[in-house]
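Format notes (please read before filing issues)

Several people have asked whether sequences and structure tokens are stored in separate files. They are not. Every record keeps both together, in the order shown below: the sequence lines, then the token lines. Line labels are part of the format and must not be stripped during preprocessing.
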Amino acid sequence: MAIFLSRAAKQKRFRRRTVVLICASLLVHLLAFRWAEGRLGVPAWRNPSDAAVTTVSLVSLAPAQPAVPDGAEATALEPVAPPPKKTRPKKTMRKEQAAATPSEPTIPPAAGMEAPGTSVEAPPLLMPEDAADAPGENAAPALVADNAAEAAEAPESKPAVPEAAQAYKVDLPPSARLDYDVEALVKGQKWHGGGTFRWEAGADSYSVSGEAGTSLLLVKITVLNFRSEGRINQFGIAPVLYSEKPRNKSLTQTHFQHDNGRISFSASERTYPYQGGEQDRASVMWQIAGIGRAEPARIVPGAEIDVFVAGARDAEPWRIRVLGQEEITTAAGKTAAWHLVRAPRQKSFDQTVEFWLAPQQEWYPVRIRYTSPNGDSLDMTLAGIER
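Then the structure lines:
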């Protein structure tokens, strides 16, 4: 038992001595490491923000002068200019490039060639916002002037000046309300609707207004919306104010200033001299009807009538030609009517305007048709007369 205890004590003392030696060795190594760190520059664990910053100053030196060969005179050297900086050519706008490129000029649509109540900015038929969400693959009809974009960029031409109007004998039709069946042909598809003209003629004044549209399900699409009013004088109809309201656009007004002798526009800064006999898009048809009633001999095949017509933004001369007499089928039956046309100029994008005046129906327009260059058309046929 004594021997066993003696061995246990010896083992305990040995373990203590071993631990002491290990701790002493670690202490000696640590002290040596710290001493070596200061002496030999061993990197220490520091915060990166405490790192030393080295500052370098750059000093520009004068360029070295080239060596002068022996025997040559020393001359003053001029500084050499740096090579020019390459610059890329500025990109020009597409519009400017188009103007610089020689091409055939685009002829803007003539004033008055659009259906009354519409303009170049607003095609005759426009799809309403709520019609866009209607079911079906076919969109609502839109008679669009083919060159609407080109007309916006085309340079303005010199305004036409009206010639002295010829005085015609005029006997205007009696006041009436005329209802029409409307058919629009757009990209080969037909759309149907209705419209109304209200014509009022007094002893020395008149007014005519028009409204028409087509229907898509329960949505009505306005086609025409206009009004013309004014006086009746020695020239027949003498407009004072013409207004139209294209769909989704502001109301425009054309003023015939009789006293000041000029025609002006709310939608344009252009002005034209007023001499008497000038018409607007809505009144011109009724002026021709009054001429036919007063002097039927003037309305014969091949006859031409020149009228200066103002639209929403400008004006120009119209030449209306009588094509001949045709039989027109209306809701009341068949009737004979004179077919007149205002054809567009060559190489233009104007609409063709046609109307049929029926002598047996007080020379009322029993049919009206507007045709675009792409084949789209707006056709109105008399459905009824209320006097």
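For reference, the curators noted about this record: Residues 36-64, 71-79, 90-113, 119-156 have pLDDT under 50 and may be disordered. DSSP finds four helices and 15 strands in the chain.
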